Structure formats: C-alpha cells, structure tokens
Amino acid sequence: MRLSRYFLPVLKENPAEAQIVSHRLMLRAGMIKQAQAGIYSWLPLGYKVLRNVEAIVHQEQQRAGHIPLLMPTLQSADLWRESGRYDAYGEEMLRITDRQGRDMLYGPTNEELITDIFRSHVSSYKDLPLTLYHIQWKFRDEIRPRFGVMRGREFLMKDGYNFDVDYEAAMRAYDRHMVSYLRTYERMGLKAIPMRADSGPIGGEDTHEFLVLADTGESEVFYDAAITDLTLGDRAVDYDDAAQLRSICEEWTTPYARTDETHDESLFDAIPEDRRKSSRGIEVGQIFYFGTKYSDPLNAAVQTADGGKVPVHMGSHGIGVSRLLGAIIEASHDDKGIIWPEGVTPFHCGIVNLRQGDEAADAECNRIYAALVAAGLEPLYDDTNERAGGKFATMDLIGLPWRITVGPRGLKNGVVELTSRRTGESEELSPEAAVQKVAEIYAPHLAAAAIL
Ligand SMILES: Nc1ncnc2c1ncn2[C@@H]1O[C@H](COP(=O)(O)OP(=O)(O)OP(=O)(O)O)[C@@H](O)[C@H]1O
Ligand SMILES: [Mg+2]
Fold first, then answer.
1. Is the CB of 140 under 6 A from ligand 1?
2. Is residue 285 in contact with ligand 1, taking CB distance under 6 Å?
3. Is the CB of 317 under 6 A from ligand 1?
4. How many beta carbons lie within 10 A of that of residue 100, not counting itself?
5. What does the domain layout of the chain look like in residue ranges?
6. If one looks up domain 3-337 in CATH, what number appears?
7. Protein residue closest via CA to atom 13 of ligand 1
8. pLDDT confidence tier of residue 82, bands split at 50, 70 and 90
9. pLDDT band for position 450 (50/70/90)?
C-alpha cells in the first residue's frame, strides 16, 4: 500500500473522550471511529488488525480440530424461552420486534442457537466429539460502555461450543481449548494468564478466564509470579494427545492465579512473599464447562454405545476478538504510539522515502517495495511529500514493527536504514540485506499461519 492512496485519518490532537492509552491511540492512529456509544466503525487500519487477530483465532481453533460455521446476529426469542434465559438475561439483551410482532434479539451469546443446530442433526455418540465455533458480532447493552473497543456494546467475539458424550470427554475439550487459547495469545505477542474464575450466570463448574496484565484492566487479579515465566514457545502440540494437553494445562493451572471473585487469601499467603503479586487484568477470553445446563432444557441428547440416551455434555469458550486490539495496545506501546507485535501488525514494514521526487530514492523505494511483496509481505510505503519528521511521527504512531528509511545520502553509499520500532535501534544495510532481514523476521509468523 502507498500512503498517498490509503485512507489513514490520523489525529494530531489527543481526543478528549479517551481515558486510556489504547483508546487514545486507536483514535489517533485512525483505526476506529465511534458511531454511537459503544459502537464503532472500523477504519481501514483498524479493520486490518481486526482481520489479522481474527485469522490467528481461526487458525488456532482449526489446528485444535474445531470447526468454523457462522450463525446470525439476530435470534428468535422462542429459543431463549426454551432455555429460560429470555427473561433471565436482563437489560443487557437488546430486544427487537419485527413487523409481524415476533420477538427477536441481537445475540449476546449463542448457546441456544448452537444447541438447536446440534439437536436437529446429531443423535449418536458416534458423531462426537464435536466442537463448532464462529466469530460473529455480539451485542450487549452494557450500562457503561467505555475504553473504546475494550467494553463496547457491539463487539466481535469468537464463541465455540463443545459437544461430548460424558464428563471425561468434555474435559478433554476443555483442555484442548485452554492449550489452543495459550497458543492464540502467544502468537499475538501477548501474555494471557489463565485464572480460575467464577462461573457467574452461565453456571457450571470449571471455568478459567484469560487475563492480560495491565493497570487499566477492569479485573483485580492475584497470582504467583512463577506463572508469568511460562511459555508454550514452539513446542509441538498434538491435539489428539489428551495426556500431553493435560500436562500443559497442569503446568499453567498449578501456580496460583485467580481473579478477585475466587481469590483465596489462605492459599495466596502460602506462596513465598517475593512471588505474591496482585495487579489489574484485562479479560481476553474465558472457557467454561457447564455440562447439561442447556442440553437438558433443549433436549439435545445422543444415543450411547449400549443403546441408552444421555443429554450431551457441553462447554462454551469465548475470545474477545475486538477487545484484544485494545489489550495488545495496552501491553505494547510507548509515548510515540503503538508498537505492534509482528504477529498482528497491519503492515509488516514501513518504507519512508526521505526525498520524494528524487529519482534514485524513488526507484530504490519501488524496488524495496516489490522485493518485500515478493517475499510474501505487505509494506506501507510513505510516498507523500510530507517532511521526514512528520513521516517518522506517523510511522511511530501507527506502530509498524520495522521501518526501512531511504534517502539520497545513504544511497550514495549503497545503504538504507532498518529501524526497529520496539528498540528504536537502526542499522545501515544494503537494500537487499534489509529486505532479507525483514523477511527472516517474519518467516516464523508466516509459517505459523499454515494449518497442517
Ligand atoms: N462489552 C464487551 N466489549 C468487548 N469485549 C467483550 C465485552 N464483553 C465480553 N467481551 C469479550 O468476550 C469474551 C467472552 O465473553 P464472556 O461472556 O466471557 O464475557 P464476560 O465475562 O461477560 O466479560 P466481562 O466480564 O468483561 O463483561 C470476554 O472474555 C471478553 O474478552
Ligand atoms: Mg467472561
């Protein structure tokens, strides 16, 4: 993309309505525009990151064997009456009536709809295990929408539902989700800690929330510092290997980590004092086992091997896709702007031409652009006539992790400058070497996108 042809409405001033840094930077970098309270338009740059985050979620879900589908945003009230939640859900549910007077709602979640799909088509244990998921807009009429995409009213969520024949099988699905979530967040450059949580109105027994530590988080969290050292890294995960999944989950759930709802002072006090931490956290996902809470009232049952019939065991598993953009920025920024992790960056590399119109500089920028594209990367080339300082400020604000700066003076010596947004360090390299280095940095990220 050439900046002269792009739509990047950056703001020079700090928007007064933004109370936290991620909201401020998303507005300033021209990523979102508020349409109504808690409802946003995704401008091109924001939309690109949203799609990147969504793609990682899709890839990691499908790697775990979960199957994508798409359910509608508008749902019939009748199904929710069957589960008893139509009246129970309260004011967060946006209720709508169509021209025939039928009660509808904008889905805040999808347990009823997915259970209806399941019961219409599956009747035998032989079709299990099954996990279906989608990434779809939700609406919750939050009483206090705030912090930009962090607490919206309309927001994008990945919600997945497992269907299993018994408790043991459902717990394998639980473990699969926990591990796939750990991988998902790691690929986004985030440390999200699974914390034992309270099951709340959805009900059920086992549940963990995934929290990104940040001062601006809405949850209060307590944890053993040892948990922040854990990483999956590039270890091979076999999603059919239940023992391996269990051991990974044990690794992550053994150190103490809880939200204020389940916090237990006596357990916490047993941790060595220097490792006892409390802070704030942003909830970026949650996994739930709730057994037959929906399959019982909605009559979703399967035939068992011995000819019996049992209600199916279920769980639901959510990732806050749009909230993640805010969480990533809260975790990765400086006073100049956003610093995108390589896994989600809207463009892989910026190209800054210091002297637009200079024949040699223009030609080299075009060559670098073409070479990056040939390496499977997407550059953003600032080919405008803006002065250098302004170009750097925009690149720093929008946070591309790598920048190649091209100017007539360097070119006389056959070099361009490659700069890391994170460290601010620059090195002079030949244009070919700079492209090569950027391609090598992104190679593992491109490879991670492939699902075997
Ligand atoms: N209003 C919202 N705006 C943006 N993302 C949200 C919102 N509500 C929930 N999410 C995201 O969707 C994920 C799954 O939804 P879930 O039903 O667990 O939310 P929740 O527990 O009600 O969230 P919260 O406690 O933050 O209100 C959450 O972990 C969160 O990341
Ligand atoms: Mg939750």
1. yes
2. yes
3. no
4. 5
5. 3-337, 347-448
6. 3.30.930.10
7. 320
8. very high
9. confident
